[in-house]
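README: folding subset

This subset contains proteins for which both the sequence and a predicted structure token string are available. Records are stored as plain text. Below is the entry for 5-oxoprolinase subunit PxpB (245 residues), shown exactly as it appears on disk.
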Amino acid sequence: MKDYKISIRSFGEHAVLVEWPNEVDEAILEDIIQFKSYLKKNRLDPEEWEMVPAYNSLTLIDKNRIIDYQGFKKELKTWYKDRETVKKRDVFLWRLPVCYDSDFAIDIEDVAKKLGITVENVIALHTSSIFTVYGIGFLPGFMYLGGLPKELEVPRRSEPRQKVDKGSVGLAGKQTGIYPQESPGGWNIIGNCSVPIFDAEREEPCFVDVGDKIQFYPITRAEYDLHKIQGEVGIYQFEKVKLDA
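--- output ---
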């Protein structure tokens, strides 16, 4: 197990931010997830602590008490050095349906033009890639997905929209993602995911974990409408494959 140079800093009275090298690297992400699992199993009561992994950091939040930063910092450094490898959690590949119909893909023609490729190429590249969930945030259930092909890298829109529809699938820089609810946003919208990504009424509101994989597949408008009905009545079955650890 490789040791990385980590830094630790206060993130308010109730939180500490642990940072790894500033790189988008699956090995770093896996080390973060492993350290989180070690802390959860051996050091920090998950009833009292919230732990949020993302890209190259782990945010630790004490839900009830003000943190003794200097003392906690020393403990974290010791725990990281002495950490043990815990059993890896199950990692899944989730296949999510996206309708790239022009009614939803409001930026796809502009994206294709900027990239010098066809709309069909944009869809083919987007659906043939397997993405890694590097973080969940911004909105509840908003997944930051890394692994975007270089051919699809496009800047954020110069003028964000006041309203982006729920389920919108967007591109921004080196990332793609799904808006789990209606919100403002500046990503380039190329389609819409027909199934609910976040549901506060579910036992697990967001079914995906950091470290999981996502692959999109194209659907017709008729399939989109059917999935929406299935999602609303709670009978849609998500497609997932368990990956080898």
